[in-house]
Structure formats: structure tokens, C-alpha cells
Design the sequence.
């Protein structure tokens, strides 16, 4: 058994990365495709404010953070729904407002810098047994939500007006999505930190959008990619003795670059292939022989 | 600029004559089409004679037993959409004013109007996506706010919120959205009604695109996908917002052929928001011209220069094919 598994804390950290690696990107699909990635960022800053409050009042941080993100998610959705503020403006107000609250509280307390650092950038050491139970519970809730409302979520993601005319209760589902995004962030911040949790929600989705067709398979692929980069990042963090937030996000970005490069090469190859077919096509026309196959093939490609 | 008004009027009238002649020509070619394909002449003739009476004004439907089809009674259920003194204002500025008209079953209604005239607002009111500031919109005799029979209504937006990004869904997945019939917690484990989805894709002519990615489709193909999506529901009413915007000439012709079939063969009521007066003249049975108020509502062949100038102000830019072009 490799040395890394000898430590209890490391086992917990790995289990935690599997849980959040699977759930965060699955949610991300519905956020990224609706260009709502910023909501993850906003809610993570709200979670930071929650953490600051918890540290100041010496209460259990994930619970306070969860309450904070839920409140913010509901308020943002209501503001947007009632058109009191444009969607992005509402997000900006909450993002900077929450960050300001966190800064003020941190200045007041002035004593929990190392703990705060672990919440900001993640840590391999701080995942406790309680955290793990907490994560497992939320993971179950999130998975159930995604399974039960998969069709509705997919429809809203495609077009909310069409979904509404289909009889989907768009507002309620938006609310549910926002609240559970907050929950996902609360769960994930222990491992990757609040500042980088947005990346775990977004980047695996970008990778899977490149390699799969079909919404359902995109969700599944995103989760697999998420688990992969979270575990890799965690292992790197252990051996290199760095904050896991950085290594997880950098592994995700490295994978994204590889996939994009691969897609580009395939695209070039495909274009070359097509040119060959078109050349063959014109050649067949000139010779008036053996042309039927090539012609129909080229036509179907251009269809 | 200094051209006398009377000259402009004369030119407009001339253009309209061209339109009417052109419509006549198209109509006769339609009959031959029908003869060739479906032997639909009796149906066509029947429709021809009923078109003028198909138009039901508010006063007609008020008593709710006015004859539409030669003595047949019209029940509220046979009036898919009815605007009842409907107003819609945005920031106290009225977008549409005092709209009063009904769309009866089997009609093909075109909604015409310049940009910013309230066409899309009217359509969104008809779909219950907007709540009227005053008045009422009835869907199949029921107020839009409390309407629940959404499977009877199909909607084809001009473009969806998703088509611009690298949306990963397959065409089949999107078309299958049409078969949604309310929340069911175990829907993910249920098998889809594949037959109905296939049938709808075939009707829209996209069966060969089933496994393609949505973001790889052309504008015309995406329109067809959205139409297939609404056909899965087997709707009684199909509402389309400028469905041929950005579609090339061939695609447009195919599209109109398909819609004609849906309207005549399947009896689906069609509401189409459009910019193309020529296409409206050829395809629709009824036309509602809106410029905040309803300027004209009636059978397309009654659409005249006065109505159009009322609609577009002056000078009217009638977008029409010149004769050489049409009789290629």
C-alpha cells in the first residue's frame, strides 16, 4: 500500500474529493450551459462570509455557511424574478457585499488566520469525520435532486420559456438549483477552498462538453472528470505539500488544455479528410466513372 | 422626398395588384400540388368557401353559438385563443392596446407588424408567458393564468436561449422534451415514447439528424427540430415566432410546405408571427396586423393598401417578389 493511504486524514481527504468531484460538476452542467457560472462564484463568497461569522462565534462553519448561501440564493432568485435588479447586477451586489462582510469580520477577529487560510484555499489536513458525514448527506440530497428533476432541469437549461409552456415550474426549480449550488459549495470548500470552488463546478463541464453529445452523458462525464481531477489534485497536494485548491484546479485546467488541443488536431484531420473527399468527388465527375459512391458520400457530409 | 403623395399611393396600389395576382397564381399551383400528392381538392374547396366566415370577431363569439363552418356551433373549446380587451403595458407605457379578436380552430393566422409593434408581446400573451395588464386572454376557453392543458399548445421560438453556446444535447433529446407530461420523480428510469418522437422527427424531416449535436445544426435545421419538439405533443395550437428568419430560400419553401400540411391535413391551428407579407399572403388564411392596436384583422385576401399603410405608416415598403422572379 502506498504511503499516502497510511494516514487517516489522507483517506478522509480522498473520500471527500471523490464526493465533491462527483457532485460539483454535475451541478455545473446546468449552470455553465445557462451562462450562470458567476452564481457559483457569488455563493462561494457568501459562504466565506458565513465561515467568518462561524469562526467569530465559534460555531460549526459548514452549517452557518449553508444558511448564508441558502439565504443569498433565495434573495438573488427573487430579485431576478421580480426584475428589481438585472441578474448580473444582483450577483455582483451579493458577491462584493459578502466579501466586504467577510473582510470586516476577519479584521475584527484578527486571530484565526491559519483556519481561514484552509477555508480559502482548501487543506488536506482539516477534513474531519463530521465533515465527511455532512458531505455524504448533502451528496445524497444533491444526487436525488438531480435524478428526480433531470428532465425539468434539462428543459430549463435549453430554454426557460419553452419549459414553462411545457408545464415546468421554472421559478421553483431555479430556486432549488440555486440553493443546492450553495450547498455544493459549502461541501466543497473544505477541500478546494471557497476561492477556487467555482473552478471545480465549471472546468470539468467544459471538458465534458468537448467530448460528449447528449445532456445526460455530459452530466455523467462531468462527474467522472471531476472525480479524476479532484483525486489527482489531492494526491499532488499531499506529495508536493501545497494547498489542494491550487493543485486540483491546475490539474483540471491541464486536462482542459489537452482535450482542447486534441479536439483541434481532430478538426484539422477532419478538414483534411473532407478535402480529400471533395477532390475525389470532382475527379469522379471528370472521369464519369466509379463516381456514385463518392458523390453520395460527399453529399451526405454536406447535408 | 418631394414626390407627391398621390404618386406614392398609385405605386403602392400597383404593387398590391401584383401581390394579389401573385397570390392567385400561387393558389392555383397549390391546388395542382394537392391533386398530385394527396388528392385534397374537396378539402381545399371546402376550406375556400369557409375562409371568410372563419373569421370570428369578438361580437360573433360573444353569443358563443355563431356558425363558423356553415351552421356548425362553436364551443369555447374550439376557440384556441381569444383576446378580450387585452392591454399590456411595460413601465406604464402600453405595448399593446385593447386587443379584441379570436383565433378559431383550424385557422392559419399570421401576425404582421413593424418592429416594436407588439407582435411578440401579443404572442407571449397568447402563450401565458406574459400576464395582461388589463383584460383577459382565454386559451381554449380558460384564462391563460389558470390554464393547465399545456400539451395542447406547441411553441416554436425564433431562437432558443441555448443555441448560441456549445450546447451538448442531441436532437433526439430536445425533441423528446416535447413528450414531457408533468413532474414524475422516477422519470429518469422510464422508457421514452420512442415511436412518437420518431414520428415527429419524420414529420419535420429531421429523422436523419436524430443523434447530431444541437449546436452543429444550421438555423433551418434547428427550426425543424423545435417544430418536431412541439409536434411530439400533438398540439391543437402551434405558435411560431418568425420561424423562417435566417433560413435560406429552399429551406423556407420546405418549411411552408410542412406547415401547410400540418394545418390542412392534421387540422392544427397555426399562429405565425411574420415579417414577410408575401409569404403571409400565400400561406395564411387570416391575418392580424398590429401596431400597438389591431389595425386589421380578417382573411388575407381582404388585406389592402389602407390596412398596410395604417400598419407601416408611410411610405410602405411592401416586401414582394416581382413577377419575373416568381414565374421563373
Sequence:
Amino acid at each position: 500500500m502506498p504511503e499516502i493511504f497510511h494516514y487517516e486524514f489522507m483517506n478522509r481527504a480522498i473520500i471527500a474529493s471523490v464526493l465533491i468531484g462527483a457532485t460539483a460538476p454535475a451541478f455545473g452542467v446546468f449552470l455553465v450551459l445557462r451562462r450562470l457560472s458567476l452564481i457559483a462564484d457569488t455563493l462561494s463568497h457568501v459562504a466565506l462570509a458565513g465561515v467568518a461569522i462561524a469562526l467569530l462565534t465559534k460555531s460549526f462553519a459548514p452549517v452557518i455557511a449553508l444558511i448564508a448561501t441558502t439565504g443569498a440564493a433565495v434573495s438573488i432568485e427573487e430579485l431576478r424574478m421580480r426584475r428589481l435588479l438585472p441578474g448580473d447586477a444582483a450577483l455582483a451586489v451579493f458577491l462584493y457585499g459578502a466579501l466586504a462582510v467577510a473582510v470586516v469580520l476577519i479584521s475584527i477577529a484578527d486571530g484565526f488566520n491559519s483556519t481561514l487560510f484552509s477555508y480559502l484555499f482548501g487543506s488536506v489536513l482539516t477534513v474531519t469525520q463530521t465533515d465527511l458525514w455532512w458531505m455524504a448527506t448533502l451528496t445524497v440530497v444533491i444526487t436525488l435532486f438531480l435524478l428526480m428533476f433531470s428532465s425539468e432541469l434539462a428543459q430549463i437549461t435549453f430554454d426557460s420559456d419553452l419549459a414553462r409552456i411545457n408545464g415546468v415550474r421554472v421559478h421553483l426549480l431555479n430556486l432549488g438549483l440555486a440553493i443546492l449550488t450553495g450547498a455544493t459549495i459549502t461541501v466543497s470548500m473544505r477541500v478546494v477552498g471557497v476561492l477556487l470552488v467555482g473552478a471545480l463546478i465549471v472546468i470539468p463541464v467544459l471538458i465534458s462538453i468537448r467530448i460528449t453529445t447528449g445532456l445526460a452523458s455530459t452530466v455523467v462525464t462531468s462527474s467522472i472528470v471531476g472525480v479524476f481531477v479532484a483525486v489527482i489534485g489531492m494526491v499532488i497536494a499531499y506529495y508536493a505539500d501545497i494547498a489542494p485548491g491550487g493543485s486540483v484546479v491546475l490539474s483540471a485546467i491541464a486536462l482542459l488544455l489537452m482535450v482542447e488541443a486534441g479536439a483541434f488536431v481532430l478538426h484539422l484531420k477532419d478538414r483534411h479528410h473532407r478535402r480529400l473527399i471533395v477532390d475525389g468527388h470532382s475527379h469522379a465527375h471528370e472521369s464519369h466513372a466509379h463516381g456514385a459512391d463518392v458523390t453520395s458520400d460527399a453529399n451526405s457530409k454536406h447535408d | 422626398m418631394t414626390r407627391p403623395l398621390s404618386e406614392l399611393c398609385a405605386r403602392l396600389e400597383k404593387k398590391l395588384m401584383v401581390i394579389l395576382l401573385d397570390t392567385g397564381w400561387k393558389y392555383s399551383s397549390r391546388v395542382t400540388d394537392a391533386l398530385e400528392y394527396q388528392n385534397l381538392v374537396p378539402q381545399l374547396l371546402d376550406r375556400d368557401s369557409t375562409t371568410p366566415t372563419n373569421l370570428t370577431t369578438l361580437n360573433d363569439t360573444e353569443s358563443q353559438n355563431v356558425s363558423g363552418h356553415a351552421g356548425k356551433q362553436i364551443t369555447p373549446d374550439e376557440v384556441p385563443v381569444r383576446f378580450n380587451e387585452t392591454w399590456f403595458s411595460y413601465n406604464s407605457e402600453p405595448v399593446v392596446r385593447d386587443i379584441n379578436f379570436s383565433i378559431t380552430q383550424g385557422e392559419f393566422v399570421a401576425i404582421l407588424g413593424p418592429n416594436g409593434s407588439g407582435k411578440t408581446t401579443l404572442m407571449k400573451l397568447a402563450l401565458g408567458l406574459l400576464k395582461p395588464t388589463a383584460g383577459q386572454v382565454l386559451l381554449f376557453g380558460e384564462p391563460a393564468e389558470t390554464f393547465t392543458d399545456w400539451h395542447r399548445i406547441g411553441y416554436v421560438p425564433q431562437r432558443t436561449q441555448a443555441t448560441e453556446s456549445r450546447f451538448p444535447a442531441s436532437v433526439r433529446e430536445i425533441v423528446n422534451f416535447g413528450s414531457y407530461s408533468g413532474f414524475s420523480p422516477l422519470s429518469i428510469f422510464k422508457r421514452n415514447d420512442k415511436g412518437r418522437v420518431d414520428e415527429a422527427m419524420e414529420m419535420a424531416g429531421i429523422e436523419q439528424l436524430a443523434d447530431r449535436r444541437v449546436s452543429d445544426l444550421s438555423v433551418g435545421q434547428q427550426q425543424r427540430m423545435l417544430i418536431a419538439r412541439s409536434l411530439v405533443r400533438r398540439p391543437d395550437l402551434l405558435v411560431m415566432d418568425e420561424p423562417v428568419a435566417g433560413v435560406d430560400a429552399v429551406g423556407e419553401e420546405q418549411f411552408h410546405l410542412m406547415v401547410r400540411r400540418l394545418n390542412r391535413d392534421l387540422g392544427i391551428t397555426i399562429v405565425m408571427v411574420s415579417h414577410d407579407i408575401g409569404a403571409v399572403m400565400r400561406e395564411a388564411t387570416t391575418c392580424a396586423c398590429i401596431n400597438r392596436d389591431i389595425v386589421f384583422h380578417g382573411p388575407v385576401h381582404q388585406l389592402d393598401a389602407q390596412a398596410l399603410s395604417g400598419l407601416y405608416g408611410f411610405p410602405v415598403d411592401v416586401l414582394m417578389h416581382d413577377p419575373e422572379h416568381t414565374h421563373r
Q: What stands out?
A: Residues 54-107+120-148 of chain B form a domain with the Rossmann fold fold (CATH 3.40.50.300). Chain B has eleven helices and ten strands. The first helix of chain B runs from residue 5 to 37. Residues 17-71, 319-328 of chain B have pLDDT under 50 and may be disordered.
